[in-house]
Amino acid sequence: MDVTSKLQASPPQTGAEAPPLTRELARFTAQHPSGAWDAATEQAALRTILNWLGCAIGAALHPAVDAAVAAMLDLDPPASVTILGRREKMDAASAALVNGISSHVFDYDDTHPTTLIHPSGPVVAAALAVAERYDLSGRALVDAVVLGVDVACRAGLLVCPEHYDRGWHVTGSAGVLGAAAAVARLLEMDTQTTTMALGLAASQPIGLREQFGSMAKPFHPGAAARAGITSALLARRGFTAAATALEGKRGYARVLSDRQHWGRALSGLGERFEIVANTFKPYACGLVIHPCIDACLTLRAQHSLQPADIASVALRVHPLVLELTGKTQPRTGLDGKFSVFHACAAALVRGAAGIAEFQQEAVEQPEVVALRGRISATAEDGLPHEAAHATIVCKDGRSFSHRVDHALGSLERPMSDHDLDAKFAALVEPVLGTDKAAHLQQSCWSLAEARTLAPFLGQARP
Amino acid sequence: MDVTSKLQASPPQTGAEAPPLTRELARFTAQHPSGAWDAATEQAALRTILNWLGCAIGAALHPAVDAAVAAMLDLDPPASVTILGRREKMDAASAALVNGISSHVFDYDDTHPTTLIHPSGPVVAAALAVAERYDLSGRALVDAVVLGVDVACRAGLLVCPEHYDRGWHVTGSAGVLGAAAAVARLLEMDTQTTTMALGLAASQPIGLREQFGSMAKPFHPGAAARAGITSALLARRGFTAAATALEGKRGYARVLSDRQHWGRALSGLGERFEIVANTFKPYACGLVIHPCIDACLTLRAQHSLQPADIASVALRVHPLVLELTGKTQPRTGLDGKFSVFHACAAALVRGAAGIAEFQQEAVEQPEVVALRGRISATAEDGLPHEAAHATIVCKDGRSFSHRVDHALGSLERPMSDHDLDAKFAALVEPVLGTDKAAHLQQSCWSLAEARTLAPFLGQARP
Fold this sequence. Notes:
Mean pLDDT of chain A: 95
Oligomer: homodimer
Structural class of chain A: alpha+beta
Number of domains of chain A: 2
Helix content of chain A: 40-55%
Distance between the termini of chain A: 37 Å
Low-confidence stretches of chain A: 1-15
Strand order of the largest sheet of chain A: 6-5-7-8
Largest sheet of chain A: 4 strands, mixed
Largest interface: A-B, 64 and 64 residues
């Protein structure tokens, strides 16, 4: 999805001298005062944590998570840290690996639109595991998430879009720095020690885009979370790294990207927090087809359309939509995510495009299959990739059109807190039941006041 | 040391279509019969293991290893697998991390000259930890080392020298594939499962050259060992990855290197084993000054020279020697490794250039300091980088010259088994004492016959 990156329009600052990035980001991580940001930033952190938690618990019984849990148990870990949505416990690093995997399995987590990083996977997975391990406060956790997400996104801003275009899954390759920063903050490491932690993290960029479509994609945020924890723990015990690991001649920015954007990485540091720009998905599939789904759901609601009423659906889409999601005959749930035809049919039939709509059952549902065959899509070069247009013609001759310029969940049209609550409930209730899901959701919104995370995490297990 | 890579002369095979590398290497790893190679290959494996073990035990009390042990113990691991040269035990993945670190701390381990990979760090560390965890045989371990080293070096051949020149520390970034292969072999994984293990490993390339000079350098083989173990364990439990992770459009070879050498990676697979080309260092410093040390030690022995006899030493060296090791006033042991003047002075005074000669004490030794001031070096453009020339003028007017074309420890003049035994003893005796060192050495040469590794590893702890 190279073209979806918003960075391509802004000029790179190559040729400029590299600033002491590793140390500056470390100083920020170590020294920025607790909670010293506006209410929108604080709320963005809670939204990020809630959304991440829902995704992780919702996928807790997925085969990828089963495999990861079994593999980590092969190492006989101690039962210290919670695996979300499951009974097993393990050491903090392994738990972060597993929770980072589960949170990205459904591809339903958050997105920092400018870099395409899914920041909570690496950052919250690492921070939550370490906060539980050392019995730290909710306030410390929220601080670590704000600062860790900031470092991850700034590492991404430093090297994207060229880094992503080269083939890196930036969620893991930049996320590892955010994870290390979050853990360094939680463990109250000073600037020098945090510099070493970021240095060690820079040597462990995780994730190739070749893996998209396999379990290795969600492995990336999990592995980044674990590598971030290791980096911080090692540094805390005196392990060293290059203090120029990010900006040096053979460092992260130059080795991992064909261009370096030095200015972006530090611009507004400590004043503007990237977590404010974090977005959440209302639909459980790739962002590229969200505008189409959004248009169909809007028409369905506005005109109380029933599937049987619909004669045809004509979509006008950005060319990338057909390139990436042009499957006309999806056979599996995963196929369904790569079929704009299935996504729109399921949305029109079921009034939603959540996890359930991309399961085998939904892909085979006769009403969905029937409607799918009546949907057409035309690529339109002039259309922005955030936009889509749908025209629905009814069997009775009525015709309705709707254009979406920005889908629900975009930075321009964010999901409301209420939307996020509903998404959380839909993910968590099937795994933990209604009561626990409700309790957990409530505790999450007041997480910053929690003196200890134990009661909160107690609700996150079956 | 870009110019020391022997790959630069051979033409890359770009433009050629990518073969199914991931699967071919997996098939080889899973299916090559046990011990199906010549005696030289088998002996190379035992030499590799012995040399690696000595390096790891010799550095067991180094501050980097103290820090790594303390950090991993922070996770409360089970006491299942040996930390070489120490009393602590931990889970197999953490033990592999620590043993991989200690084995590279002194920069005294092995080198595959064509790729500059130090293959035993990632491969033997991973294989030994898993073999102990699952109580496997010495035969299985030796097989895993031969095959794992082969996969690591072939991954390096695929992307070097461009990959190394870009700034990757290929020991970690290709080593992770060898570690995963070794563990997959030990756990008797089939071709398909091994393909997944290599796929997961390809997403975890570890190591930037910016780290050279810090503890993060030896962290790279350790982290690669651990990542290799994780990859294999996950795959064994059903976790998936792209089967084209190495050769695909957004895969390892294209993302991590500006050129791909497809043909090299598979050439002679199963017939020729890269471990035969593995070399071992007689001197505890960078390879670039080995020819100078060798020339000085040769003259010292041939003419029974005493330091007090020597009026001056004139070296003629490849330009890189002065560029990389031109420090005239070293102050620390580490400085000493970057001073051809110190290395040659210490060798002439003490008759050796082992670990002891690059400690603070040797750098400050009055006789060494005095002789250091009487050594000069001239860069000579025409000289091959493997060569050096030394002329020693004595106070009594005698003058002796010697030219080295290939230093001891090179592929052309390998260390003998006896040399390796002496190196092993010098490393291990200070940590474990003479008896254990001798027993361990003996057991190592007959490792392939060991039904279990427990007695062997029992000797590797204080």
